[in-house]
Amino acid sequence: MQKILAKTEDMRAAINEEMKAVLQYDSVTTPDLFFGMNHYHMGWVDEQMQPVQVHAGKQIRPLLLLLTNQAAGGDWQQAVPAAAAIELLHNFSLIHDDIEDTSPTRRGRKTLWTIWGIEQAINAGDAMFAQAHLAMSRLLERGVPADITVQALRRFDETCLNLTHGQFNDMDFETRDNVTVDEYIEMITGKTAVLISLCTELGALIAGCNAPTVRHYAQFGLELGLAFQVKDDILGIWGDEAVIGKSASSDITTKKKTLPVLYGLSQSAELRRLYRQENTDGAFIAEAIRLLDESGAREYAIEKATTYSQSAQGHLEAAQPNGAAYTTLNELADFLLQRDF
Amino acid sequence: MQKILAKTEDMRAAINEEMKAVLQYDSVTTPDLFFGMNHYHMGWVDEQMQPVQVHAGKQIRPLLLLLTNQAAGGDWQQAVPAAAAIELLHNFSLIHDDIEDTSPTRRGRKTLWTIWGIEQAINAGDAMFAQAHLAMSRLLERGVPADITVQALRRFDETCLNLTHGQFNDMDFETRDNVTVDEYIEMITGKTAVLISLCTELGALIAGCNAPTVRHYAQFGLELGLAFQVKDDILGIWGDEAVIGKSASSDITTKKKTLPVLYGLSQSAELRRLYRQENTDGAFIAEAIRLLDESGAREYAIEKATTYSQSAQGHLEAAQPNGAAYTTLNELADFLLQRDF
């Protein structure tokens, strides 16, 4: 990742400058708390509205958008407002997710709602949602034609609707015992993959690609997002064990319904019985992993991830990207998938 | 209002049809609860997702948009998606406001969050926010040019940002003792007037008016919204007494910081002392009204409302509207202002 970060320094600077313009951040003047709450969330100021430097995530989504744009033959500077919009959309959803999940911290800092209350945090998220849209409309000022800008905005909101649908399913699943593998794939498609797909789709759209090429880029992002999520599910159970020899992870302790678990539950009556017990101690974890292994859940998930990953690669090649950005795009995809299982 | 409703039956039918298309409402199939929660909020189904007929408000905002559009020379059918978007935006904000204000009921029914929980209600509101934007982008299908559609979307989101700023101020004021009249005007501008202004502005924009005319229509809506809010503040203290002889209203009992109260507090040390006491019984109410009258708060507020109202009328005339829609637009403005004080 260090290599990718070094190669994309100018892109990341441009994304951050654009986000600061849209969120009306000026480090010199003391901001209105209304804007300040969102500057806090972005990691630009502390609770007292004093400038700070906080690691604000790897910003992989906006980078994916700009790299796709460049690999598809675009001038990435034109696409910067869309990249900023994607990152703001992601951050808006984090503000509301933190309330919905009652999460006290994010990135090692107190979440917005724990400082200013749920009421103001809901409203601050709504403001950032509006600002994400305002970022999109700034494509006009970079010379992107109005018809492409409207089309990009429409895809942006269709994706927002998918994201909220995915979040609905995720919250709904927590209350249900009978979630199927297919429902799970639908949920992670909505919660994770459609946003990655929007990045690659908008990158191509703004580059002026024709419709079939835009679709290949969109599908590349979608399958990449699915592969990423399933890989994450695998690491959540077997990752630590395989890589650093620690015992299995919190996904078992919390009985999280990830893909390998749902597959295992569908195959093994013993696992279903085990998951009905309250206690999730060391013996529970060991037995759960034994039953998951026995049911073939790991192979199943690896096969799924591999299929998604290969399909992603196929769509990327079909889109015929080129140049140095194509290389970096591939590196970024490799990093996301950590193809080491 | 009955006369206006009769004259705008076709417009209201078109607005509702458009909203149902955008919210994916089909009364025949049983909907996904994800969409169903918002159908419930709109008054189309009950808690069990069975179709119902509920009075869903007078829909004055979208009507204002379509009437302005027609009076400005447009074909109102073209503007229907924007009218639907305004009504969805308003309803999205109600879903979140009800959580923020812990309101158990709205329009005589349980609020969304009391049935499905705060988490799902935040998310359902986010979905409707995205759908309001999707409604706007449907202007394209009605033949509105892409550049006007993008401009309309930008004004839509700038207004959303103003609305959240107004909501921030409103919540912030509840915790403060030193709110000024100017801050109050700024707050109601953001919370109420900018949305009314957006209706008249978008109506004119979509009709293809030139920039100065669009500005007059926007200003007409803004001043109309301010006049409406101040009038509402006056009725909240003296309305019942003057009209139906009842004793003063809940705005005094709840010590709500409306314009007449803020003016009175700035003028009368006695009123400031009175408002410091906990008890708000009958003697408190009588004394508060006596002091408000003595301070000239009522005349001050009436003068403000009159100035806004006259300014609104001036901008409307400067915009040179015409036809039957102009007459109805005037009737709607009169209804909003109930010019009877």
Task: Describe the overall structure.
Two copies of one chain form a homodimer. The first copy, chain A, has 341 residues and is an all-alpha fold. Helix content of chain A is 74%, strand content 1%. Chain A is built from 15 helices and two strands. Chain A has a two-stranded antiparallel sheet with strand order 1-2. In chain A, strand 1 and strand 2 form a beta hairpin. In chain A, helix 4 packs antiparallel against helix 15 and helix 11 crosses helix 13. The first copy, chain A, is globular, with a radius of gyration of 21 Å. At the A-B interface, helix 5, helix 6 and helix 7 of A face helix 5, helix 6 and helix 7 of B.
SSE layout and pairing:
Two copies of one chain form a homodimer.
Chain A: H1 2-7, H2 9-22, H3 33-41, H4 60-71, H5 76-100, E1 105-106, E2 109-110, H6 112-137, H7 146-174, H8 181-206, H9 211-244, H10 250-253, H11 259-267, H12 269-276, H13 282-295, H14 297-318, H15 324-337
Antiparallel strand pairs in A: 1-2
Helix pairs in contact in A: 2-5, 3-6, 4-5, 4-8, 4-15, 5-6, 5-7, 5-8, 7-8, 8-9, 9-14, 11-12, 11-13, 11-14, 12-13
Gyration radius of chain A (Cα, Å) is 21 Å
Main interface by residue count: A-B, 42 and 42 residues
Structural class of chain A: mainly alpha
- Topology order of chain A in helix (H) and strand (E) letters: HHHHHEEHHHHHHHHHH
Q: Runs of chain A with pLDDT <50, length 5+?
A: none
What spatial form of chain A do the alpha-carbon principal axes imply?
globular
Taken as a percent bin, the fraction of beta residues of chain A is: under 5%
The average pLDDT score of chain A comes to 92
Distance between the termini of chain A: 18 Å
**What does the oligomeric state look like here?**
homodimer
Strand order of the largest sheet of chain A: 1-2
Question: How many β-strand stretches of chain A?
Answer: 2
Percentage of helical residues of chain A?
over 70%
Total DSSP helices of chain A = 15
Largest sheet of chain A, in brief, is: 2 strands, antiparallel
